[in-house]
């Protein structure tokens, strides 16, 4: 995951003449079509930790600051930058969540090797220490269901699609 962000950052730097010369809406379209896909390639298979989420958010804000030509020394809050772009929330992590949840639904609905790996259990004892975060823990955290309940829900495409939309939609803070 971190290598993907490094590659996307180098791509972002190589397009410096575009960030300096074009209008903001055009820059946003270029960002979403050329930079974000490089950063999110293969994101369906990532297991996201808190540190990874922070890195993704930092990369996204770095991109927005490049577009608006705001140096990091300006010490402007992220919310003001998002407001200047006319956005309510960050988009990159939301897109990653949507892609991962859609992939989960696809895997659960079909009888392929991926489903067997997802549902399989390894015999034996686990090693010492804290268990690593699992891929399915992201699914259950985002949807608010257990993996088994999410698997049952995924059989109904429309119901699962609305659950994914609900899990990734913007909610105004109370």
Automatic annotation (TrEMBL):
The highest taxon in the source lineage is: Eukaryota
Source lineage: Eukaryota, Metazoa, Spiralia, Lophotrochozoa, Mollusca
The protein's matches in PANTHER family, at most eight in alphabetical order, are given as: REVERSE TRANSCRIPTASE DOMAIN-CONTAINING PROTEIN, REVERSE TRANSCRIPTASE-LIKE PROTEIN WITH RNA-DIRECTED DNA POLYMERASE DOMAIN
- Write one Gene Ontology MF term: endonuclease activity
Protein's recorded name: Endonuclease-reverse transcriptase
| Record's keyword terms, sorted | Endonuclease, Hydrolase, Nuclease
């Amino acid at each position: 995951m971190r290598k993907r962000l490094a590659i996307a950052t180098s791509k972002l730097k190589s397009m410096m003449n575009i960030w300096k010369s074009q209008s903001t809406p055009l820059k946003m379209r270029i960002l979403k079509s050329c930079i974000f896909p490089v950063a999110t390639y293969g994101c369906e298979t990532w297991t996201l930790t808190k540190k990874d989420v922070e890195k993704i958010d930092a990369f996204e804000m770095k991109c927005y600051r490049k577009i608006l030509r705001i140096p990091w020394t300006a010490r402007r809050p992220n919310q003001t930058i998002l407001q200047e772009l006319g956005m309510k929330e960050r988009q990159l992590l939301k897109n990653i969540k949507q892609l991962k949840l859609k992939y989960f639904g696809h895997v659960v609905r079909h009888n392929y090797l991926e489903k067997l790996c997802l549902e399989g259990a390894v015999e034996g004892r686990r090693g010492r220490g804290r268990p690593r975060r699992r891929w399915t823990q992201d699914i259950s955290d985002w949807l608010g269901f257990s993996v088994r309940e999410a698997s049952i829900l995924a059989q109904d495409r429309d119901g699962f699609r609305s659950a994914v939309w609900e899990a990734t939609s913007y909610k105004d803070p109370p």
